[in-house]
């Protein structure tokens, strides 16, 4: 049936009708033909049975009186039946009379009735005389010839009838199929027009109230729904295009705002870096100022020591010796002033030794303070390098540097520093950014302690590893604390509670921590209960340094 798929529907309907009708006719003709064969076969047996009964009745007397001649004459009358090929009469187990061919012999095991054997029908009939069987009549008939004739006749009739029926079916189906094909073709033409022109307003005409009519109505309803949906879809498409244009404009505005925000972010980071450097420089200047005060005290003491030095007494004694060069022994022995010279020299030596020790101590203090200034300046120079350079850093050393920068202010305010340092491996990071954050956190803690008015001011700095293989640096104070409503705002740009604060120190610190892959968080139990800031930095070993620098 595959070949029917691509045929036009008219031809499909004609072929379906023809095939159905032909199949029905063939089945009917075959049934009729089989019926005719069975009828002929039954009639053939019936006729042969009647014929054998007649021959048996005619030959009973001849058989009973052993008249073979009369019996043969009776059998010879069978020439009128061309389908009888042989006949014989048996008496007492021996052939009594015979007609026709001897081929095949007498039927074995057949005494009364008939049997089909190959192309022949064998028939046996007892010959009875005065109610006594005197012999048996055997007939051999060739029934296939009758069958062949019947087949020729009936096949001819069947072919003629079948050809006429097919022709009549073709003519009728050609006309009748239009009842089905015309509505379908009209519907298909409408569907093709709609598909080609996208015109969903077109409708198919219903040509009846049958299933095709209902299908056409359903098709028209579907077109109406599609038209409604298409109109809604077109409106939605137009609205979507307008929204896309608006969205594109919004995206462009956002991109422009993001670029401006990025520029502002970079400027803020740069300003923060400079502010951090200024904070560091301020701390350095405080420390240098304190050391310079010590240097000033030492220089004043040295100047006073030089001014009050006993060297002048030594000069007077030398002048006295020059006056008595010629009579020096006499002078030292008999002159009252000369006899006091040895004691004076001893006292002078002791005073000069004390004076030398004092000057030496002040000079050592002065050298130490000058070296301290040099170290502070060197540290400032090392942290004033270009930001963004990643290097190997000892965290505890970095925290100590931040404390050193703020040491003058912490000492001036009487702040106690507690260190809780765990041993952590070196990390690779931007040393300047971390120092900037730590200096800012320590200074904020110092301000919080200063405003608290407490006598036991204390800052605790802790270093330890967290569970995520990161380094945490904690700066904790017991100062004024942070109200709960400010905990979510302290890292916002511009937010500050200090009168002279600029409001971007903690914001810049949080950004710097995020840029390094870490974080900065704050916690406080409330006003007057102190505050804790936790700077978390990723821990990178030397083998993984490229992960940060790449």
CATH homologous superfamily designation of the largest domain: PAS domain
Order of helical and strand elements: HHHEEEEEHHHHHHHEHHEEHEEHHEEH
Query: For the record, what CATH class of the largest domain applies?
Result: Alpha Beta
Which architecture of the largest domain would the CATH scheme give at its second level? Answer: 2-Layer Sandwich
Count structural domains.
Answer: 3
Describe this entry's structure for a reader:
Helix 6 runs antiparallel to helix 10 and helix 6 crosses helix 15. This protein has 16 helices and twelve strands. It is 62% helix and 15% strand. The protein is α+β, with helices and mostly antiparallel strands and 550 residues long. The protein has a five-stranded antiparallel β-sheet. The protein is rod-shaped and about 225 Å long. The chain has three domains: 175 residues, PAS domain (Beta-Lactamase, 2-Layer Sandwich), CATH 3.30.450.20; 105 residues; 163 residues, Heat Shock Protein 90 (2-Layer Sandwich), CATH 3.30.565.10.
Keywords summarizing the entry:
5-stranded antiparallel β-sheet; 12 strands; single chain; alpha+beta; 62% helix; 550 residues; disordered C terminus; 5-stranded mixed β-sheet; Heat Shock Protein 90; Beta-Lactamase; rod-shaped; 16 helices
Write a brief caption for the model.
This protein has about 550 residues and is an alpha+beta fold.
């Amino acid at each position: 049936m595959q070949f029917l798929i691509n045929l036009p529907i008219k031809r499909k309907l004609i072929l379906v009708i023809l095939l159905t009708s032909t199949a029905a006719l063939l089945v009917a003709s075959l049934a009729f033909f089989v019926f005719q064969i069975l009828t002929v076969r039954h009639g053939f047996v019936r006729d042969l049975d009647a014929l054998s009964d007649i021959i048996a009745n005619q030959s009973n007397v001849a058989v009973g009186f052993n008249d073979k001649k009369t019996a043969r004459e009776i059998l010879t009358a069978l020439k009128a039946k061309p389908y009888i090929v042989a006949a014989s009469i048996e008496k007492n187990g021996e052939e009594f009379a015979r007609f026709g061919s001897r081929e095949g012999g007498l039927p074995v095991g057949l005494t009364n009735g008939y049997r089909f054997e190959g192309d022949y029908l064998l028939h046996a009939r007892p010959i009875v005389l005065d109610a006594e069987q005197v012999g048996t009549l055997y007939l051999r008939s060739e029934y296939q010839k009758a069958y062949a004739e019947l087949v020729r006749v009936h096949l001819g009739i069947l072919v003629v009838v079948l050809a006429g029926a097919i022709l009549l079916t073709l003519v009728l189906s050609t006309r009748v199929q239009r009842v089905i094909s015309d509505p379908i073709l009209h519907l298909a033409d409408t569907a093709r027009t709609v598909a080609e022109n996208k015109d969903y307003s077109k409708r198919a005409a219903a040509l009846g109230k049958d299933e095709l009519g209902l299908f056409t109505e359903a098709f028209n309803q579907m077109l109406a729904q599609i038209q409604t949906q298409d109109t809604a879809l077109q409106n939605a498409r137009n609205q979507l295009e307008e929204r896309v244009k608006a969205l594109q404009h919004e995206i462009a505005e956002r991109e422009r705002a993001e670029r401006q925000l990025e520029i502002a972010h970079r400027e803020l980071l740069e300003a923060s870096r400079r502010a951090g450097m200024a904070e560091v420089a301020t701390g350095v200047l405080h420390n240098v100022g304190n050391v310079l005060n010590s240097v000033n005290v030492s220089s004043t003491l040295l100047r006073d020591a030089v001014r009050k030095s006993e060297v002048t007494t030594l000069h007077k004694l030398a002048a006295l010796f020059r006056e008595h060069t010629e009579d020096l022994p006499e002078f030292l022995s008999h002159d009252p002033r000369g006899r006091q010279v040895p004691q004076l020299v001893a006292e002078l030596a002791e005073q000069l030794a004390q004076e030398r020790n004092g000057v030496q101590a002040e000079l050592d203090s002065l050298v130490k303070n000058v070296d301290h200034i040099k170290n502070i300046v060197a540290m400032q120079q090392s942290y004033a390098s270009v930001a963004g350079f990643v290097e190997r850093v000892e965290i505890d050393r970095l925290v100590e540097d931040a404390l050193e920068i703020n040491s003058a202010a912490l000492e001036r305010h009487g702040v106690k520093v507690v260190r809780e340092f765990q041993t952590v491996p070196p990390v690779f990071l931007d040393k300047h950014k971390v120092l900037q954050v730590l200096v800012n956190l320590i200074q904020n803690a110092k301000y919080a302690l200063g405003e608290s008015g407490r006598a036991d001011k204390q800052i605790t700095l802790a270093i330890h590893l967290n569970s995520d293989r990161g380094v945490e640096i904690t700066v904790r104070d017991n100062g004024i604390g942070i109200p709960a409503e400010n905990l979510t705002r302290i890292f916002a740009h511009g937010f500050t509670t200090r009168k002279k604060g600029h409001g971007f120190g903690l914001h810049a610190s949080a950004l710097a921590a995020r840029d390094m892959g870490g974080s900065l968080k704050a916690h406080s139990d409330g006003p007057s209960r102190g505050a804790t800031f936790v700077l978390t930095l990723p821990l990178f070993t030397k083998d993984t340094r490229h992960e940060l620098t790449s």
